[in-house]
Structure formats: C-alpha cells, structure tokens
Amino acid sequence: MKIKVISWNVRGLNDKKKREIIKSQVQNWRADIICMQETKVEGDIKEIVNQIWGGRWVSYASLKASGTRGGILLLWDCRVWKGEMLQTGAYTLTCKFKALLQNFQCHITGVYAPNCKIERKIVWREIGAVRGLMEGPWAVCGNFNVTRYPSEKRECSRRSRAMVEFSDFIEDMELIDLRLEGVYYTWFKGDNRFDDRIRDWWTSFEFSGRPDYILACKLKALKGKLKEWSRSSEGNLGLQKSKLLSQLAGFEATQQLRALTEEESVRKAVTLMEIEEQLKNEESAWRQKSRALWLKEGDRNTKNFPSYCQCTQEKQQH
User: How many Cβ atoms are within 10 Å of 246's Cβ, its own excluded?
Assistant: First the structure.
C-alpha cells in the first residue's frame, strides 16, 4: 500500500492568516498523514486543527510546545486511518496507524530536535527506545536541526561531528535516508551576506584625524551606503513584495487553467510564507522609522496633542 506523508516545519501556528495558507496547501496535497513541526502551540490545539484541516473527519495527536519553541502535530483522516498514540517524549511523538479499508499498518515518529548538541542526543535515545516497540513499516520525519553532508548546508565545507553522529544514528536504526528533490535548500532566512557587506563597507572607508572625527565620518559614509542599498532590489522591501506578489499571481493564473503539480504547490506555499514574512518586515521597518522620527522631532512631532485634549474635554463637558 502506498501512502502519502507530508512533513512540514510550519514555524508557528498561532497566526490566523498563516493557518489559512497552510489550510489551502493541506487541501491541495490531499495527503494521508501530515506531520507538522515547530507548531509553537502550548495550549489546546483543537480549534487550530479544525481550521487547518477544513473538515470534521480529522483526528490528531500533538506534542505541546515548550514556551515558544518546539511542538509537533500529526493529522489524519479518521475515515481512512485509525491512529493510536504510542509514545511521547520531550522532542518526539510516535503514533501507530492502521488502515480501515485495507490490511495495512505502519508507525510514524514526528521529530523536532533542538539546536543544542547535548539535547540532540536525547532525541537519538528517544527514537532508539521507540524502535524496539514496533514492527513493520516505520517513518521518522521532522526537523532534526542537523544535516548529514556539507553539501546540504549553506557555506559549509567540512563534515562536523554532529553530521557524523546523525549518519551513525540513521545506520544504527536501519533507516533509509530519502534525499531531497527539487529546490536544493529547504529554506533560508534573510540575506546571510548582509553582515559581510557591512564589514566590507566599513573597512573600505578611509579618513584621517582624531578618532572621534574618523568614527563620525565612517558612520556618515555608512549611512549613505545603506540608503543606496535600500533603494536596490535587495534592500527595497516594496520591490521584494511586488516580485513575490507577481510570482503568486502566476501560480494563481496557472491554477485556473490546470491543477498545480506537487512541486508548484510547494513553491506556491513557500511564496505565500515569504509574503507573510515580508509584511512582518515592512511593519517592523515602519515601527523603526516612527521611533527614529520621534527621537529626531521629539515633542515637535505631537503638535496635534493639545487640540486633541481640548476636543476630548469639550466632549466630556457636553
């Protein structure tokens, strides 16, 4: 029996708009079982599950987040599968699934490993303990926060001890590593070269004089460079958002003509997530600009405050 399992690091389920995006992808994928990691949900998750699934025929098992990190959620159609929670750990969730329409059963372990090397060893022990409790097909999916080879990580040239331990764990558990297809990296955040760019600009400035004078001149020159960068395609949030919206419009136009392929559905989901991230960046940028304006203008930027107070007093008197 062939089953379709989706593993997705959603990086939080507390935002309602984000859940709508995830819901659309869940409906497009039509997976048998969905494993989501890094839900960041600490309390009751039932309403969130109903919103994501978009129907009543859903069962789930969850591992609550610890504060604002971690959290695992397994979803399945209860008309097709009977799921049973087998074991939960600090970083893993294992369920047993039995097909209701065929003679088939399997086990799935969802993982969200911490980024700490010491705590990650706890994950290996938890999965190893579960391995002895089951027989038959077993899938281990999730975010391990480690890769096996340097080629799977940006700007990595050598194999670390964590990579060796991860490979040894896969071999010890007799697992098959399903290699990535499509895009080379699953995700990356921001411009990792921005710090290097700032450093190069700073070292390229040459001024002479007293140390405080040199510092003031360098800061002024850096401000000019940042203004130029903000007007470019890399630094202009408006241009980046327009580009992402154009990509999304292309996917929507294609979807009206035919069904999207699995790779196109993934790319559309990534685009939607990037748009959401871009909107958050814009909001943060405007917040920073407002603070900078207040620091510059001070009370001169609140000239409407006396008139507002007078208007409020008149309303109270009436």
Answer: 10
Q: Tell me the C-alpha distance between 68 and 308, whole Å.
A: 40
* Separation CA 98–CA 85 (nearest Å): 12
Provide the 8-state DSSP code for 259: P
Give residue for tokens 């590593």. Answer: 177
In a 3-state reduction of DSSP, which class is residue 158?
Answer: coil
Beta-ladder partners of 50: none
Contact 56, 77 (CB under 8 A): no
167 within 8 A of 123, measured Cβ to Cβ: no
Sign of CA dihedral 79, 80, 82, 86: negative
Report which of 212, 61, 290, 162 is spatially closest to residue 220, judged by C-alpha positions.
212
List all residues 6 or more positions away from 63 whose beta carbon is below 8 Å from its beta carbon. 70, 71, 72, 73, 88, 92, 93, 110, 112
The secondary structure of residue 66, as a DSSP letter, is B
* Coil/strand/helix, residue 178: coil
Amino acid, single-letter form, for residue 67: G
**Model pLDDT for residues 110-160, shown as the tens digit of each residue:** 999 988 888 888 999 999 998 888 888 999 999 898 888 887 777 777 888
Buried b (16+ CB within 10 A) or exposed e, 211-232: eeeeeeebeebeeebeeeeeee
Count of other CB atoms within 10 angstroms of residue 291:
10
Task: Residue 5: name the closest of 87, 81, 117, 91 by CA.
Answer: 81
pTM to 2 decimal places: 0.62
